[in-house]
Write a structure and sequence with these properties.
The protein is mostly helical. It has helices at 3-12, 20-45, 47-54, 58-85, 88-105, 112-126, 129-140, 143-175, 177-199, 206-210, 217-220, 229-247, 249-252, 255-274, 284-292, 296-326, 331-336, 339-361, 366-381, 393-421, 426-455, 459-467, 469-479. The longest helix is centred in the first third of the chain and has 33 residues, at 143-175.
Length: 490
């Protein structure tokens, strides 16, 4: 057995028991995810203020929302790679500090363009949260506990989505929307101090060293020739084409920016897939990418990621606006009422992970247990289809609570599936899949705004997001069991 294989086997071996420190790390990452969602959701909760101050349409506001999601999608790939290769203790701390500063800077943006730039910077920092957190849970928790561990930290998304509507509308109404950005962003620096203190001592610090490169001394030496010329030419052509498409946005509109980023992301993946794997041996990150894109399960989860991320990010970004304007509840009540669906989502995060764990403990194969929970979750999500046709506000809130619960349970088990693709490349896999999911979520946000401008409401958009997760379920049922978890030897 080679030294590299021995290291991989050591990492892949399950930890016998997760202790209080391991679960404590999950709850600390729950706090960072809470802040992450408070920062990102603040913009959705002040949509009436933003649209009024800058005099923009719903479609334009959709592009303000997309500014975050586009950079979040683009930087998920390098974020996943860095989570695998860098000391995750400092990578995580630096990411939270970055996005907290970006959130605070948005409070001082004098123009819509600068506000969008701050939101784009926020997306860069927050792209590291899930790859880093999943790298930690994948390292310190045994496989059977990862669904619950993922549910714990991921439930911070729902808690943040609950706390934000309970605080941001009030702060905005009495002190202005810019004050809300300052307060929420400042909380992140407190988390950084606690994280550095807790992870710098005792057994909880052990994952930091294990997140470094899994390479033998021979692998660590720089390659003499680097990447071959054919790879560099393909990458240069892809980059030049993407830049050309982005520049054309001046004439063809902002949608060309989405297409340029999509071209970069999918082009990079296709280059790594089509060219022979040995062409990528000159660089560690390209070698890792070439391995990942040859895994059939990776492409199955790409479908799952897109289907559930479009749904979740639509709820996060447009649900407050729906209650504030479509339902006529006003800026404060309309913003605060969405706390109810996100409370249900918190239950879904913990319940979805715990249910698959319980089914596995009672003898059901783990993969089947997760798939069953995902399928049941998709049925719950489909309740949002009826939102636009119902007059009762109370019933609409109940239906969206059921949909949010299902979405969160779906995502908790989706993350556990991600960790089964590759132990060595967990961060990179999660980064790419998250990037693809957020890319399509970003593309749908302005489409939802355009639908509202043309139809007067978001009802048709709820139908789309209510049915889309079934596509991900079909991908899992159709292909997971028969597909290999690692690339075939060349």
């Amino acid at each position: 057995m080679t030294q590299t294989a021995a290291i991989v086997d050591e990492l892949a071996a399950p930890i016998p028991r997760a202790g209080r420190r391991e679960w404590g790390l999950c709850w600390l990452m729950f706090a960072s995810t809470t802040l992450c969602y408070m920062d990102r959701q603040a913009i959705a909760l002040v949509s009436p203020f933003i649209k009024g101050e800058f005099r923009i349409s719903n479609e334009d506001f959709g592009w303000v929302l997309a500014a975050f999601s586009l950079t979040y999608a683009l930087f998920q790939v390098p974020a996943g790679y860095f989570a695998d290769r860098w000391d995750v203790r400092w990578t995580y701390a630096g990411a939270v500090a970055w996005w907290s500063m970006a959130g605070m800077l948005a409070a001082f943006a004098p123009t819509l363009g600068l506000l969008m730039a701050c939101r784009a910077l926020l997306g860069v920092g927050e792209s590291c949260n899930w790859p880093c957190a999943l790298r930690v849970t994948g390292t310190v928790l045994p496989p059977a506990d990862r669904g619950l561990g993922n549910g714990i930290f991921n439930s911070g998304a729902a808690v943040g989505a609950v706390l934000a509507p309970l605080t941001v509308p009030l702060l905005s109404n009495y002190f202005g929307w810019r004050t809300a950005f300052l307060v929420v962003g400042g909380l992140g620096f407190i988390w950084v101090a606690v994280w550095v203190a807790v992870t710098g001592r005792g057994p909880s610090a052990r994952f930091a060293g294990r997140a470094r490169p899994l390479r033998s001394p021979a692998d660590a030496s720089p390659a003499a020739s680097g990447l071959p010329a054919s790879v560099w030419i393909a990458l240069a052509a892809l980059t030049a084409t993407a830049i050309l498409v982005a520049v054309s946005a001046v004439w063809f509109g902002r949608s060309a920016i989405w297409w340029s980023i999509a071209l970069l992301m999918f082009g990079l993946l296709l280059i790594a897939l089509v060219l022979p794997a040995e062409r990528f041996e000159g660089s560690d990150w390209t070698r890792s990418l070439a391995e990942v894109v040859r895994m059939h399960r990776f492409w199955l989860l790409a479908i799952v990621s897109i289907s559930v991320n479009v749904c979740w990010h639509f709820l996060v970004n447009w649900m407050a606006d729906y209650f504030q304007e479509d339902r006529g509840l006003g800026k404060i009540a309309g913003g605060m009422v969405i706390a109810i669906p996100f409370m249900a989502a918190d239950i879904g995060n913990l319940g979805g992970g715990a249910l698959s764990r319980l089914l596995a403990q009672r003898g059901m194969p783990l993969i089947r247990a997760r798939t069953m929970v995902v399928a049941a979750s998709a049925i719950l999500i489909s309740s949002s289809v009826w939102v636009g046709a119902i007059q009762s506000n109370a019933l609409v809130v109940s239906l969206l609570a059921v949909a949010a619960l299902g979405t969160a349970a779906y995502m908790a088990n989706y993350f556990a599936f991600c960790q089964e693709v590759s132990i060595r490349h967990t961060g990179l896999v999660v980064g790419i899949l998250g990037g693809l999911g957020n890319l399509f979520a970003a593309g749908f946000l302005p489409i939802a705004g355009a639908i509202k401008d043309r139809t007067g409401g978001l009802g048709p958009s709820f139908v789309i997001v209510g049915l889309l997760p079934f596509v991900g379920v079909a991908a899992l049922v159709w292909g997971w069991r028969a597909s290999p978890s690692s690339p075939k030897p060349s």
